[in-house]
């Protein structure tokens, strides 16, 4: 499967799908990371101040980790190339105009956008409108 780089093709085939699960963003020092937390994390990023984890709500609560807000993950099912130009900008601009924050995570096959849980349906509509 070849990853797509053409912006018009990417947007036409975006096919955004929302997760049914809520996620939270939390951070903790490296010495508090456990293999369990790492294995259930939807995403992880090392920063100078600590390690950010994107976790299912229940996992963060069980580990007594602080977080603010609940997010749903929208996966854009088009196989986007990491070299594609403009896709993130088009999505975040459209969501921003609708008053929806967008936390975008680019992975090898797809882009994933974490939006406030209560705005996920509107976000799906906004992203779907990009394919028209």
From TrEMBL:
- The chain positions of domain DUF2241 read 3-71
Gene3D superfamilies associated with the record:
VC0802-like (3.30.2130.10)
Q: Which Pfam families match?
A: ACT_3
What SUPFAM superfamilies is this protein classified in?
A: ACT-like
* Name of the protein this chain belongs to: Transporter
| Organism of provenance | Alteromonas marina
The opening ranks of the lineage are: Bacteria, Pseudomonadati, Pseudomonadota, Gammaproteobacteria, Alteromonadales
């Amino acid at each position: 499967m070849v990853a797509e780089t053409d912006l018009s093709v990417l947007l036409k085939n975006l096919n955004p799908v929302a997760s049914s699960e809520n996620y939270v963003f939390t951070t903790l020092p490296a010495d508090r990371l456990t293999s369990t937390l790492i294995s259930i994390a939807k995403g992880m990023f090392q920063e100078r101040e600590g390690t950010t984890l994107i976790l299912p709500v229940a996992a963060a609560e069980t580990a007594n980790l602080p977080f603010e807000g609940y997010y749903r993950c929208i996966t854009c099912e088009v196989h986007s190339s990491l070299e594609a130009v403009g896709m993130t900008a088009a999505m975040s601009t459209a969501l921003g105009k609708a008053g929806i924050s967008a936390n975008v995570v680019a992975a090898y096959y797809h882009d994933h956008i974490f939006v406030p849980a209560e705005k996920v349906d509107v976000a799906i509509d906004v992203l779907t409108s990009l394919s028209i």
